[in-house]
Amino acid sequence: MPPKKKEVVKVQVAFTKKQMEIIRSYRDIFGDSDAEIVRSMVTNWLVQKRDSKTGGKEK
Asked: pTM for this one?
């Protein structure tokens, strides 16, 4: 049986040129493409928010 495909939701966002410069400065740290970098940044931010609410304790 072939593996299930991940469900993907696409979100369009707009950044200023300065914001894109900052985002692109993280290339090779968070990823290679703009989408990878933004996805990694958002995911890391969400994890930090979750951890700050739970006191760093995992459920």
From this structure: 0.74
